[in-house]
Amino acid sequence: MKAAAFSLMATLATFAAHAGDTCVTQAAAKNLAGAAKASFLTKCTRDAVTASKATCDAQAAEKKLAGAAKTSFTKKCVTDMTPDVQATCDGMADDKKLAGAARNSYVSKCTTDSVK
Asked: Do the beta carbons of residue 6 and residue 24 sit within 8 Å?
């Protein structure tokens, strides 16, 4: 049973890391632009984060974490497993031609919303 659970977690972690690393690349390969690109990046990133959350929740349960410790562990784990979130948000800000404080605010909100 433990071997099957470990295998499932490893598969999900691999999927999440692979999906997170390739969202921008996949959008470029599909020659997406504008709203189609933004929609694709949002969905791709959301799928990667969802897969990461499942893996991280399983790890938290394995460590018998609860409450604030579980929340903190899961948030850090998801952030570590989906490094492409920042790049995706930066790309979306570039597409919107945002600069300065507006860009920083947009990227910060985008990154936070993606990891929730």
From this structure: no
Contact 38, 91 (CB under 8 A): no
The tens digit of pLDDT for each residue in 57-107 reads: 999 999 999 999 999 999 889 888 876 787 888 888 888 899 999 999 998
Q: Where are the domains of the chain?
A: 2-115
